[in-house]
Amino acid sequence: MTGSSASIKTNFTAGQVSQNLLGRGDLKIYENGARHLENVIIHPTGGVSRRRGLKYISQTDKPARLIPFEFNTEQIYLLCLTDNQLQVFKQDECIAALETPWSGEQLFQLNYTQSADTLLVVHPDVAPKQITRNNNEVWEISDWEYYTKDNMIYMPFYNFYQRKPQIWASNTGGNITMAATADVWLSTHVNSYLRYQGGLIKITEVITPRDIKGTVVKGLSGTGKTSDWTEAAFSDARGWPVSVTFHQNRMVIGGSRDLPNRLWMSKSSDLFNFDLGKALDDNAIEFGILSDQVNAIKAVVSTRHLLVFTTGAEWMVSGEPLTPEKIQLKRQTSVGIYADKILAPQQIDGATIFVSANGRQLREFLYTDVEQAYQAKDLTILANDIIRRPRDVDYDKNDCVIYLVLEDGTVSCLTTYRTEDVNAWSSLKTQGEFLSVAVIGSDIYFCVKRNNGYFIEKMTDDYYSDCSICLTSGEPLREWDGLSHLEGEEVVVLANGFSVGKFVVSEGKINLLEEATEIIAGLPYEHLIEPLPYMVNGEQPYPPKGFRVIGARFRIIDSKSFCIDIGSGYFLYPLKRIHRDAIFDSPPMTYSGDVQIRALGWIRDMNRPMWRIKSDEPLAFTLLSAVAEIKLKE
Q1: Spatial contact of 593 and 556, defined as CB atoms under 8 Å apart
Q2: Cβ–Cβ under 8 Å, residues 376 and 314
């Protein structure tokens, strides 16, 4: 007994879904989801496109962390951090190189924020730095300089002891010695500061755990024994800031190595002044987050409120404006943020997106007027296997896509458009491992580890291969050089618009079968679009024994290649024959319209998809919808 049915897929706005949902044909996401979406980008409108290829920009000796630097929409730069080195790129050219204090192991624990032409960078084990671009595009790295008045430096200070020992000094000025009633000093206290007897002392030498030498920066009012003293909150001995941002004209520092749950806010409109003063409205603010456990702060984000993301909970700091008397701190949710790497929360359409503490969920932190509180919605509930141990993240606001680089070298992409409730996942792969991502304006850069080293590459229109390069010649050539960065690799070549096959690079050269005046050569990658298995409607009590795809109609747009398996193996559909006025030997033309294909044979494995689209041809492809006519075998 047979019957007929139809499978209609009008969009892919549910993205790639988990195998745990293969039995949920009753859900709307089953119609709009897919089993596999690899090397494609999902559009908020529902279509899927072969991702753009990666253009070769530069090569580095070591793994890199990429950081965007945007002064305005026209003056944008890419900062490429490697082991103790910084390269600055403008329009894909390196314009500056500097030494830095951060080792390769520390790069993905860096936190940063930008104000105009200055980037503030913090790491819990390294003194905070500022990267500055001067008028003539001269780049510098320097230490933070706190506000100083009358020889007093107004940096954060703290009492690290419950029972503070007493200390005393040999003199009120100049070079002095100091002693303590208990073991206090560490060798790493050198160059840190003490507040004592109304003055300021810089430690120059640690003699013993109880004796030090120092220089008086601001004169002391006395030298006697006292327990009324504090030391700098940040130092080599106590650790350095973990996170930083700007909020309501204040610089906000969230946590340090030895004070992980403490917040510091600078004086209003005076970013490096942390003078607590007499608790006036514009004075600096300092407090700790006290709860049932120590919540180590990993990120602070400025939105309608100051959001504090810790390893155990998410907090809201409110006050209009923030003052020492009006400030309020409230716990919102208890998800916790990922701590193995510093992944900056992304602000998207009024929501703040962050990776959960277990490293497997992406959460949307959003304020709701009904609850008058924030909620943390799980954006991976339909694809719970799409994220594992992320290492970097950035957001492309033009295409509404979040790029999450994972430790396994792949990239998980989330197309999110909150007003239309679109959250669609796909994944990106390449011949190698993705290490870092940075979105600068409309450009998306990746650091990629490949067989020949580490590469900086950029997603580029009309490029559909990776680590690719465009070469031109005034005269037709068969032999092309300039491919030394791909030595020994098999590359796919687009010559004068034609896909002419794959060639192995030898001594930086390839030899084509025919002459060409322009080529784009790079590493091939394969896109895959595979729908969920066919599911009968809920009115039928028993599933069919098999089904046959009679025919299918695919609506594509701006496509030059279409390779599909509809039951009898993959074949390349000749789009050129659809163009009636096309010249036979002309390059592939973009086609927009319907492609109708007939099929033969029964499918008895109900877990097998009705069709698959897969290709490594370096040509554009976009699928909008698919309709398949099905015959069932009862």
Answers
A1: yes
A2: yes
DSSP string, 439-486: EETTEEEEEEEETTEEEEEEEETT--SEEEEEEEEEEEEEEEE--GGG
Residue 120, token pair as written in the block: 């503030």
- DSSP assignment, residue 589? P
For residue 480, give Cα distances in angstroms to 56, 277, 487.
17, 70, 13
Query: Which residues on adjacent β-strands are paired with residue 446?
Result: 437, 457
Asked if 206 and 214 count as a contact pair (C-beta separation under 8 A), the reply is: no
Q: How confident is the model at residue 419 (pLDDT cuts 50, 70, 90)?
A: confident
Residue 427, strand partner residues? 38, 412
For residues 575-606, one letter each, b for 16 or more C-beta atoms within 10 angstroms of the residue's C-beta and e for the rest, the string is beeeeeeeeeeeebeebeeebebebeeebeee
Interval 250-285: pLDDT, tens: 999 999 999 999 999 999 999 999 999 988 999 999
pLDDT tens-digit map of 127-183 = 999 999 988 889 999 999 999 999 999 999 999 988 889 999 999 999 999 999 999
The per-residue pLDDT for 541 is 47
- Model confidence, pTM: 0.93
Contacts of 494 (CB under 8 A, 6+ apart): 464, 465, 500, 519, 520, 521, 618, 619
DSSP state of 603: B
How far apart are alpha carbons 575 and 587 in whole angstroms? 12
Distance, in Å, from the CA atom of 305 to the CA atom of 296, rounded to the nearest integer, reads 19
Report d(CA 502, CA 127) in Å as an integer.
Answer: 50
- The separation between the first and the last C-alpha atoms of the chain, rounded to the nearest angstrom, is 5
pLDDT tens for 218-230 read 999 999 999 999 9
Phi, psi of 159 (to 5 degrees): -95, 110
pLDDT computed for residue 451 by the predictor = 93
The identity of residue 511, as a single letter, is N
Buried b or exposed e, range 426-453, using 16+ CB within 10 angstroms: bbbbbbbbbbbbbbbeebbbbbbbbebe
Two tokens, residue 591: 């086609």
* Each residue's pLDDT tens digit, 377-392: 999 998 989 999 999 9
Q: Residue 134: CB partners within 8 Å, gap ≥ 6? A: 117, 140
The span from the CA of 266 to the CA of 155, in Å, is 9
